[in-house]
């Protein structure tokens, strides 16, 4: 399908300047940070002034900022994000180790918020102005006002401390020796509360968008035409009204990915999920600025990748995308 | 022959900006079985309100008085099965994100007890009947890939997919350019003649009306001015307003038929 | 009927106005009702709520008055969210106007920078900024604005693009006004209303981001914050969950008030349009 391929190529080319700006931005932040990598290294290992000088020279920290930016770009092009003092390991390795947990958490939370949010949005939007419509819109607004980390704590108090249904923290039972399905179920049980805390907040967003989109779709002529053709109300709601209202939600899915990645920082911290967000909190706590900036860079790449996937998905859902350039 | 449709003292009022606006007042009109009746009038004459009222598509805020009876049915009409409706703007009346074949097939499925396979086969047949090229491929096309005239043909196919006894065409050609207009009018005439369908052809264009209809009803300000057989009405209109409409048109074209 | 009257007639507007009024009153009244430093010890540690009427909401792990914390926390929340929202809208409006009015390369460069800021998760950016520069009230405000100015920028740009073709802009050009003067004196004021419509969302988000930052220990250490109180309570979550729950309720009510007021304003505006 060359419509999708054209789209991918255009998006990838567009991502290059954006990524360059992000890199320069993180470099500037790194420069602003008091102390440099050598100071951090010396703090953790100890060493005299001579060693400091030698290290500065070896790591190129005595060079001009422009040279250092060039070095930074050069090492990034080799996928070298630098070395984490806290973990005594390459930053990229630490990040890649934590990434799957965050992807699992985000993926599940997105599925929850998008799936349940759009479904409830259909329920509300099927009859604009009805009681259930007003109830769901106000209810979702209240949910949207809840801070994720606090919702996480409340869920913990209720379901882990009081009811003891779910584990308090972590991603799986340590040294349980479980494998295969047993391990998957164990991870699932651990993820219920963090996914709920992260997902419920954004659920409100999708619900409200779906509802607004459906109210708009109801006013379209093709809905009146479908009524005139005697199509059942059920099919009109689902296949025509909701189907058309779904499109902006899919776009939102991409825009929301950056927000959700930010939200996972607090949620992973609350539930001690060893993911990218928790790593960011650890980097802040241990003042490991290069690690923190590495996380930001990887997050930016992740957001670009997610948006690309969403764009392709959108092109499949909306046949009009890219149609004008195909004829041009 | 029992008429398809009796309209008896039909009035429709809308509420707009806290004011009651009467769109139709006390209209009496019959549509015979297999008859081709044209409704003509300027915008605001109530002719579209009449079409929407017959199909039960008026907004909930509209107040309706009077009766619409379907003697040959003996039951309330079902949209799609008893009434086919073709709207003015084919770009707006087709769902932009659904393949045109499915939009025809869903009507057949709703009214003819077909499964999707049969409904799609019928959709292809109908696409051929409305004279669209390569129906098998076109079935999978989306509205934005078709021209305005092609889209209106698709909308007509969807309107007749339930084999309705009455086809309502509400300004179905006025969004199209002149040459395409004539083709669509010819197509509609051919389809209703072949199937013995009654036709309610709503237009502001008296020439188009006289081309297709055996009877014409003239509307003005929500009221029926006069109605009569096409030739008689064109040759010797009884009302001054009808004469005015004819004169306005004769200035543009030499003959009406 | 005045606009305010009409706004209060919508159920959302009324509920929002009441919640916001309570929030602002609490924030303003804090130094009068609780003149002592809210971070100082007021009584026995871990006193439950509704036990001692001089300390109605009880005390935390160190014996600090929870109600005093709520009052002074409202101050921080109010100050930070208003300042951050004002800063984001100001920066966004300026960038958007320059991009939309400048066009060409200016537009291209500014919009790519906006893209870059939207690509980085806003909260991570705020986290990194506070962590690098060091936590203080001003830095927290700057950090929140850093992640929130892109929305206003995009809207301002779109608005400016439609305004710059209008007659009065053309006549200002003919009159020989400097382009920057046209941009900021003729175009920007007219582009502002839809940008300001974003204000409620930005204020609400700012309150939530500030709370999350303080929850992670990146708030101003010399001030009480609701997020900080929740984090404090978290260490005794099993024995004294109220310490985390109470400030959270204050947060939810405040943010809800902002959203409801925003909804009410949108509805009032819609009604006004339909009447006109």
From TrEMBL, chain A:
It is a multi-pass membrane protein. It comes from the Bacteria. Gene3D superfamilies: MetI-like (1.10.3720.10). PROSITE patterns: ABC_TM1 (PS50928). The chain crosses the membrane at residues 12-30, 103-123, 135-159, 191-209, 245-271, 291-317. Signal peptide: none annotated. GO terms for biological process: transmembrane transport. Coiled coil: none annotated. InterPro entries: BPD_transp_1_N (IPR045621), MetI-like (IPR000515), MetI-like_sf (IPR035906). It is found in: Cell membrane. One of its GO terms (cellular component) is plasma membrane. Keywords: Cell membrane, Membrane, Transmembrane, Transmembrane helix, Transport. Residues 99-314 form the ABC transmembrane type-1 domain. It holds the Pfam family BPD_transp_1. Belongs to the binding-protein-dependent transport system permease family. This is Peptide/nickel transport system permease protein.
UniProtKB/TrEMBL annotation, chain B:
InterPro entries: AAA+_ATPase, ABC_Ni/Peptide_Import, ABC_transporter-like_ATP-bd, ABC_transporter-like_CS, P-loop_NTPase. It holds the Pfam family ABC_tran. It catalyses: Ni(2+)(out) + ATP + H2O = Ni(2+)(in) + ADP + phosphate + H(+). It is found in: Cell inner membrane. Residues 7-246 form the ABC transporter domain. It is a peripheral membrane protein. This is Nickel import system ATP-binding protein NikD.
Automatic annotation (TrEMBL), chain C:
The chain crosses the membrane at residues 78-101, 122-149, 195-219, 240-262. Its main location: membrane. CDD domains: TM_PBP2. The keyword Protein transport applies. It is found in: Cell membrane. Keywords: Cell membrane, Membrane, Peptide transport, Protein transport, Transmembrane, Transmembrane helix, Transport. The keyword Transmembrane applies. It is a multi-pass membrane protein. One of its GO terms (cellular component) is plasma membrane. PANTHER family: D,D-DIPEPTIDE TRANSPORT SYSTEM PERMEASE PROTEIN DDPC-RELATED, OLIGOPEPTIDE TRANSPORT SYSTEM PERMEASE PROTEIN APPC. This is Peptide/nickel transport system permease protein.
